[in-house]
Amino acid sequence: MKKTYLIDLDGTMYRGTLLIEGAMHFVHELIKRKEEFYFLTNNAKRTKRQNVEHMERMGYCGIKEEHFFTSAMAAAIYARKHYEGRKAYYIGQDGLREALEDEGFTIDDTNADFVFVGLDTSGTYEKYSKALKLLLNGAKLIGTNDDRILAQPDGFSIGNGSVVAMFEYATQQKSPKIGKPHDTILEEALDFLHKKKEDVILIGDNLETDILLGVRNQVETIFVTTGVHQREDIDRLGIHPTHIVDDLQELL
Ligand SMILES: [Mg+2]
């Protein structure tokens, strides 16, 4: 049986708003060959539609909303399965709101059962203080992913994990670990897609998230050197992918 590809986005399909040409040819060929693939991303910001549009603007064709599984979706599904209550406050953007609504949560900023934390690039002290109040009143903290910092063209910006850590410090409450490299996002994605670990291959540019997730779960991995890590990082980090390519077109 042909394996299903679970493909990372930033650093693998594009860098910010810059297309990675070989990645586009690879995906277009998968579509032509009717091979199954999904995008597995820690990025909780965009809705499925916004993800499609973001890729179309760079030149991708044939990408559908159902191709995306995000850390926001994994977080919302995980919370629905493991906890009572369906009232949620969130610090995040459209993608997190959509994921919560899709799982039957209602947004409530006065009496929430949960505070979800995804990346909110317009997060304010006021929003954080409102979330803190809800958490101190007993709401459960759920961070979508724990990326510490995010690579930007001119350096780095604060990642969602650093914001989640702030709430953990303030409330002495721990968030479950959802996004890559933690098992939850893979388990929820496999459940959602009706796949088993042996049915999938993880593709990504980040050894510490994409590839580590595969290594920890005995899932086949393809490391592509178009993003944050290079070949020399493999030994330094001691994280060994199944396959290494410099351009995804080498897989065709
Ligand atoms: Mg990446």
TrEMBL record:
GO cellular component, one term: cytoplasm
Cited InterPro entries: HAD-like_sf (IPR036412), HAD-SF_hydro_IIA (IPR006357), HAD_sf (IPR023214)
SUPFAM superfamilies: HAD-like (SSF56784)
Pfam family membership, one: Hydrolase_6
Species lineage: Bacteria, Bacillati, Bacillota, Erysipelotrichia, Erysipelotrichales
Gene Ontology MF annotations: phosphatase activity
Domain of life: Bacteria
Species of the source: Longicatena caecimuris
The protein's name in its UniProt record: 4-nitrophenyl phosphatase
